[in-house]
Amino acid sequence: MSIPESTAVEPRRAAPSAGAGAGVPDSGRGLDLTLLAVAVSGVSLSAPLIASTAAPALAIAFWRNAMAVGVLSPVALWRHRGELRRMGRRALGLSVLAGLVLALHFGLWLPSLNMTSVATSTALCTTTPIWTTLILRARGHHPPRLVWAGTALAVVGAVILTGIDLSTDTRALVGDSMALGAGLAAAVYMLLGAEVRRTATTTAYTFVCYATTAAALLCACLVSGSALAGYDGRTWLKIAALTVAAQLLGHSLLNRVVRGLGPSTTSTAILLETPGAALIAGLWLGQTPPAAAYPALAVILGGLALVILSDRRR
User: Fold this and answer.
1) Cβ(46)–Cβ(261) under 8 Å?
2) How far is Cα 234 from Cα 237, in angstroms, rounded to an integer?
3) Count of CB atoms situated within 10 Å of the CB of 81
4) CA atoms within a 13 Å half-sphere pointing along the CA-CB vector of 244
5) Mean model confidence pLDDT for the chain
6) Cα angle value 192/218/170 (rounded, 5°)
7) Separation between Cα atoms, residue 131 and residue 305, nearest integer Å
8) Helices and strands (H, E) in the chain, number of each type
9) For 186, phi and psi rounded to 5 degrees?
10) pLDDT at 20 > cutoff 60
11) pTM of the full structure
């Protein structure tokens, strides 16, 4: 689950605009990188679990957030209620906005999988670190050349694995646009989280964010007619496993480390989800990993190393 921090509000520390946090001790950065690896492993379980779960994709997205809120509620409303009260109007508003953007990410990407090829949808959605770097540049930050190079290299690694085959079919083009929008939404979500985490704790931020996402996805399910119940016990167990692995360990740890590592490093590391999911599917579902999985993993790791190296030089 979300790693609860001290009940006292964390010391105010400016979150870095790109790369890892300047001035963060090596021991703290080492812990963040370890938690980042755990988080990426958690989100890598997402696709194999969703693929094996007999429930509508939007309903799965709703339940993973709703269940996470259920788990976090006793912790956030009892042990950490003081942190919620001290969030401030701005942090609370940005947390709600982050939740809406996360719901938009799910709402755009999941339907796009049925409108265009899965490979193309995944490749376009993995443009998140490019959007992150561009948004930072537009806000007046100047990411070093190594950040640009590392970001581009990591995205190339994702494309090596997923491929991209843009179609001229109208429906497929709409799906492509939705997947691209999902990648942009993920970048905005990551940047909003980095901003909120300058003053708010992980528990307070994730509780408000996930509650907002769950509410928005519930509305989407009702509008689209996605069945929210009637599943068998095996399906509920898989949704619960998805909640623990991808939501509480995955997204919550990403929300924790983005404060120290910054949005550029964090969003670039998320690209490891693509080859990670392929390898997990091979081990768990018996699906043979594509031949490109291993070189793609190496290329993405190389790109991530450049982004982290850039921060260390700074």
Assistant:
1) no
2) 5
3) 13
4) 5
5) 83
6) 80
7) 19
8) 14, 0
9) -65, -35
10) no
11) 0.78
